[in-house]
Amino acid sequence: MTLPCDELVRTELRVIIAQIRNLNQSIRELEKTIAEEVSKLQGPRNLTSIKDIGKITGAILLSVIGDEAVTFTNAAASSPPRP
Questions:
Q1: Contact in structure between 56 and 34 (CB atoms under 8 Å)
Q2: Which of 26, 30, 31, 38 is nearest to 63 (CA)?
Q3: Please, are residues 59 and 44 in contact by the beta-carbon 8 Å criterion?
Q4: Are 18 and 41 contacting, i.e. CB atoms less than 8 angstroms apart?
């Protein structure tokens, strides 16, 4: 079964599909670069040792919490006092 589509709609769909494909390719390239760069750092190795945390998630967490927090060198000193 085909739906009636005029040429304008087909053109718009082709453009949107091409944009989605280009975005997907860009995402793959970015993920590859992030994974390569994260492999050079110590912090993400600590994070990726946790079940279900991969290189991308580790990089995101590291960017939010910072490298010092990931090394757990002095967790007691960096923790806020308990009420």
A1: yes
A2: 38
A3: yes
A4: no
Alpha carbons 9 and 24: distance in angstroms, whole number: 22
Regarding pTM above 0.70, the answer is no
Both tokens of 72, joined, read 């757990």
30: CB partners within 8 A, 6+ apart: none
**pLDDT tens, position by position, 28-65:** 999 899 888 877 776 666 777 888 888 888 888 877 87
The arithmetic mean of pLDDT across residues 11-19, rounded, is 95
Q: What angle do CA 11, 16, 17 make, to 5 degrees?
A: 95
Cβ 26 vs Cβ 32: under 8 Å: no
| Span 9-34, average pLDDT | 94
3-state SS, residue 20 = helix
